[in-house]
C-alpha cells in the first residue's frame, strides 16, 4: 500500500545539518524485500556510511480518501544507497507500530487558513458591556494576515496565543493561570458567506514568559465551552473532547497540507522531461510543509 500511495516517510537523523530533503522521503516502489525511498534536492542527500545501519522511520498511510493518514513507526535497516545518493533501499520491517494519534493535534496554520481573532478577558463581577469595552486583550484583527504573529498553533481543544509585551503588561491580571477569556475565531471560507465562526470560553492553562525582551509572552488556552446556535442558543461544554465542528475544519486543513507536501516531494526537475523548467519545491519549502504534516501528526494533543 505504501508503494501504491507513494507514501510519505520521515527518517529520523541526528544533527540539524542534515538536508531536509534527506529527512522527508517518498516511497517509489518495492524491490525484493526492500522499500525504495527517494528524497528531494539537486545535491546528493545520503552518504555511504549510512548503508547497513538502522534508523527510525515514520510513515503515513491513507486508508480512507477523506481521512487523514494514520501514522506508523518502524526501525529500518538501509540495505543500499543509489549511486547518485538521492534514493535508498530500506529492508521491509517485520514489525510496524501504529502510533496513537489523538484527535486534538495542534496545527500550525498556513496564511490562507488563518482566522480573524479577538480575545477578551472575563473577570467576575462585571457586565458583558464593561468586559468587551475595558478588557479587550486582542482587538478583532482586520484580516487573517494580522493573526500571523498572534496565533502560534490551534487544535479543537485550544490554542497558543503570542502577545506583544505592551498587551501583556496591560492585561497581565486577566492572563493569570486559571483565568477565563472569551475567544472569537472567524475562519475564511471559499465564499464570503461561507466563513466559519466560533465563539469560545477559554481557560489560561499555562504561560511562558521569558526575561528576553526579544521574545514574546505566550499563553496556552484550553477551550472549555463553545457558543451553539442550534436548536437554540446555548454554551456547550467541550472540555473533554474539544469542538467537533472546529476539529472537522482543522482536519480538512491538515489533509490539504499533507497532499501539498506529497506533491512537493514528487515534483522533480528532470532536464530531459516535458516538465523541464518548472520549479520544484526547495528543501526549505519541503521542511516547512512537513512541519504541518508528519510532525503535527506525530504530536500528541496536549492542551495548547
Overall strand count: 15
Mean pLDDT: 78
Strand-residue fraction? Answer: 25-35%
In terms of per-residue confidence, which ranges show pLDDT below 50 for 5 or more consecutive residues? 268-304
Structural class: alpha+beta
| Helical content (DSSP H or I, runs of 4+) | 10-25%
Distance between the termini: 34 Å
Summed up, the helix count is 6
Shape assignment: elongated
Biggest sheet architecture: 8 strands, antiparallel
Order of helices and strands: EHEEEEEEEHEEEHEEEEHHH
Gyration radius over CA: 23 Å
Give a structural overview.
With 304 residues, the protein is an alpha+beta fold. It has 6 helices and 15 strands. The protein has helices spanning 20-23, 128-134, 165-171, 244-266, 283-291, 294-298, and strands spanning 8-11, 24-31, 34-38, 54-61, 70-81, 87-91, 97-98, 116-121, 136-138, 151-155, 158-162, 180-187, 196-208, 218-228, 234-237. The strands form 2 sheets. Strands 8, 9, 10, 11, 12, 13, 14 and 15 form an 8-stranded antiparallel β-sheet that branches. A 6-stranded antiparallel β-barrel has the order 1-2-3-6-5-4. The longest helix is centred in the C-terminal third of the chain and has 23 residues, at 244-266.
Overview in brief:
This protein is of the alpha+beta class. It has helices spanning 20-23, 128-134, 165-171, 244-266, 283-291, 294-298, and strands at residues 8-11, 24-31, 34-38, 54-61, 70-81, 87-91, 97-98, 116-121, 136-138, 151-155, 158-162, 180-187, 196-208, 218-228, 234-237.
Amino acid at each position: 500500500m505504501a508503494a501504491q500511495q507513494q507514501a510519505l516517510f520521515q527518517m529520523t537523523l541526528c544533527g540539524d545539518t542534515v538536508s531536509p530533503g534527506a529527512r522527508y522521503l517518498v516511497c517509489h516502489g518495492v524491490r525484493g524485500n526492500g522499500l525504495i525511498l527517494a528524497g528531494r534536492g539537486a545535491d546528493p542527500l545520503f552518504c555511504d556510511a549510512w548503508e547497513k545501519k538502522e534508523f527510525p522511520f515514520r510513515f503515513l498511510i491513507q486508508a480512507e480518501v477523506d481521512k487523514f493518514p494514520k501514522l506508523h513507526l518502524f526501525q529500518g535497516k538501509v540495505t543500499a544507497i543509489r549511486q547518485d545518493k538521492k534514493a535508498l533501499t530500506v529492508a521491509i520491517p517485520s514489525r510496524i507500530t501504529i502510533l496513537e494519534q489523538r484527535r486534538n493535534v495542534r496545527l500550525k496554520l498556513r496564511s490562507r487558513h488563518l482566522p480573524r481573532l479577538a480575545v477578551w478577558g472575563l473577570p467576575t463581577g462585571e457586565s458583558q458591556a464593561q468586559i468587551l469595552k475595558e478588557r479587550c486583550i486582542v482587538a478583532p484583527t482586520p484580516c487573517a494576515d494580522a493573526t500571523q504573529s498572534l496565533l502560534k498553533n490551534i487544535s479543537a481543544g485550544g490554542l497558543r496565543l503570542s502577545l506583544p509585551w505592551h498587551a501583556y503588561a496591560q492585561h497581565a491580571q486577566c492572563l493569570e493561570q486559571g483565568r477565563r477569556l472569551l475567544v472569537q475565531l472567524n475562519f475564511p471560507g471559499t465564499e464570503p458567506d461561507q466563513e466559519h465562526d466560533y465563539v469560545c470560553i477559554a481557560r489560561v492553562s499555562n504561560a511562558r514568559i521569558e526575561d528576553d525582551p526579544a521574545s514574546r509572552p505566550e499563553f496556552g488556552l484550553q477551550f472549555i465551552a463553545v457558543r451553539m446556535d442550534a436548536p437554540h442558543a446555548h454554551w456547550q461544554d467541550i472540555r473533554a473532547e474539544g469542538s467537533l465542528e472546529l476539529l472537522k475544519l482543522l482536519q480538512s486543513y491538515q489533509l490539504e497540507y499533507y497532499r501539498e507536501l506529497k506533491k512537493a516531494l514528487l515534483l522533480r526537475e528532470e532536464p530531459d522531461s516535458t516538465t523541464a523548467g518548472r520549479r520544484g519545491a526547495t528543501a526549505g519549502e519541503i521542511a516547512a510543509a512537513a512541519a504541518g504534516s508528519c510532525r503535527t501528526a506525530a504530536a500528541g494533543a496536549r492542551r495548547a
